[in-house]
Amino acid sequence: MAILGNVIKGLIDLKGVFTSEVNHTENQEKVLKNLLEKAKNTQFGKQYKFEEILESDTIEKTFSKNVPYFDYNSIDKEWWHKLHKGEENVTWPGNPSYFALSSGTTGKSSKKIPVTDEMIDAIKSSGIKQVTALSNFDLPADFFEKDIMMLGSSTDLEEKDDHLEGEISGISASNIPFWFKGYYKPGEDIAKIEDWDERVQHIAENAKSWDIGALSGIPAWIELMMQKVIEHHNLENIHEIWPNLQVYTSGGVAFGPYEKSFNALLGKPVTVIDTYLASEGYIATQVRPETDAMQLNTENGIYFEFVPMNPDYINADGSIHQDAPVFTINEVEKNKDYILIISTVSGAWRYLIGDTIEFTDVEKAEIKITGRTKFFLNTVGSQLSVNKMDDAIKSLEEKFDTLIPEYTICAKRFEDGEFYHSWYLGTDLKKDEEEVATALDNFLKDANKNYKVARSKALKGVKVQLISTDKFHDWSDKNKKKGGQVKMERVMKEEKFAEWEEFVNN
Questions:
Q1: Is residue 155 predicted with pLDDT exceeding 80?
Q2: Can you list the alpha helix ranges (DSSP code H) found in 40-109?
Q3: Where in the numbering of this chain does the GH3 middle domain appear (predicted)?
């Protein structure tokens, strides 16, 4: 009998009973006041007169009026670069204990995003919220006695001056609570291995000795890990070695494009729970099984604002115009795309995180990620967001009965002087590429009126190339590194796309 599991499940259920309905508007008002109060004597707080904002009758409106939008480049150039020169109290009191390294999906050089002790506490609190939400998923008591495989970047953080540096998944894993370490796999020694392939090899070799009940990590890298374990032990599916695997916690990217290839590695269905952990903080987590939308973590160190998604508000470099309108959480509407803006206990202020979201339930503050501001393809007026591209890929999977877990696209001018959408699809599909291109084009015409208009004017056509999925993984390895928070660029500009095509052809 799973005695310990019953105890843990009982405590989780009990916490759920005594947790009152969340008031997200009140949460956000408290978070903003707390942020302003704590940072009012920093260099940033004095520059933008946080004391005066706190005295305002409409703190949210005064805050958005007085403080400009920032993206990483602008806040680093104006403020965060001072932290690397030893200055204190720049955008948050004291100095950060960590810097999260993030090349994201945009380039080879790493951003260095401050991560304070307060942010570590906020991430832990949001993690506890995720655990207590498991009471909603009707999991058996023995699930709470199983091991949890968290596959992220290396936890062997690099020491620099008075702080540590690494990817956010490595920073988070290095700060797991002591009581969780007995459940945590692959364990500290393997998690510290920097080389991805070596780390996964160790996981495969040790897989038989673990009783994995849950997996957590970015879908592409979890898939590669499972493939390696299956291959190493000559299995049909992952459940042959981990029969008690019941939950997969996805994060970092939308799970949809990976769903079919992920399920192909399983022997039976698992519960998929979406999470949204970025280098800048733990943004949201799924708390109900009735939906795959995620609830914003409105109570834990992050204040959210929302700019309506409109190409006119976005500059060529992906930043947003300072005059772009903004809404608070009690002003948003359902099923509309918004650019996400955050202010945090790590000293990010009115910060463009780069993602676009839509609310599926305003009262519950539940959202879905719909794309990236830099991945919004509008070169010739097609206005394609990543979620529309994901839908198109899913339609191809169904039509041709295949798997397409990876893809990238560029609006490229060809030798005839005309613009085409040039797609590379990661798949084993053996089909005529023109037939696939026609199916892709037809789906997008039906699904997106702006795309249909563009196809009748400046967008001449669609070109498709079918390549091995391994090419995408090798590209990530060449430009960044495998594993961790690394994600494939869904949309590339022509200069980067030329590098990609040269890489693929060679």
A1: no
A2: 43-47, 50-55, 59-66, 72-78
A3: 299-363
* CA dist., res. 204 & res. 232, Å (int): 6
User: Stretch 488-503: mean pLDDT, rounded?
Assistant: 84
Cα separation of 250 and 255, whole Å? Answer: 7
| 112 strand-pairing partners | 101
Kindly compute the dihedral angle of the four CA atoms of residues 295, 300, 303, 304, in this order, to the nearest 10 degrees: -10
Mean pLDDT of the chain: 85
CA distance 197 to 184: 20
| C-alpha 394: how far from chain center | 20
What are 139's two structure tokens?
């999991």
Q: Which residues pair with 424 in a beta bridge?
A: 408, 465
What is the sign of the dihedral through the CA atoms of 177, 178, 180 and 183?
A: positive
Instruction: Count Cβ atoms below 10 Å from residue 306 Cβ, excluding itself.
Output: 24
CA dihedral (199, 201, 207, 212) in degrees, to 10, reads 40
Q: Where are the domains of the chain?
A: 1-373, 377-505
Nearby residues of 338 by Cβ (< 8 Å), 6 or more positions away: 306, 307, 308, 309, 327, 332, 356, 357, 358, 359
- The answer to whether the CB of 69 falls within 8 A of the CB of 350 is yes
pLDDT tens per residue, range 22-68: 899 999 999 999 999 999 999 999 999 999 999 999 999 999 999 99
DSSP β-bridge partners for residue 277: 282
State which amino acid sits at residue 450: N
Question: What letter does residue 401 receive in the DSSP assignment?
Answer: T
Q: What is the pLDDT of residues 83-120, one digit of tens each?
A: 988 899 999 999 988 888 875 444 445 788 999 999 98
Give the integer Cα–Cα distance in Å for 61 and 67: 10
The pLDDT of residue 481: 61
**Higher pLDDT, residue 428 or 8:** 428
* Contact residues for 71 (Cβ-Cβ < 8 A; gap 6+): 318, 319, 320, 351, 352, 354
The angle at the Cα of 471, spanning 214 to 422, to the nearest 5 degrees, equals: 110
Dihedral sign for Cα 302, 489, 218, 392, please: positive
Distance CA 166, CA 339 (A): 27
Identify the H or E element spanning 371: strand 366-372
The DSSP 8-state label assigned to residue 19 in this structure reads P
**CATH number belonging to domain 1-373:** 3.40.50.12780
DSSP 218-284: -HHHHHHHHHHHHHHTT-SSGGGT-TT--EEEE-SS-SGGGHHHHHTT-SS--EEEEEEEETTEEEE
Tokens of 217: 């990590």
Confidence class of residue 6 from pLDDT cuts 50, 70 and 90? very low
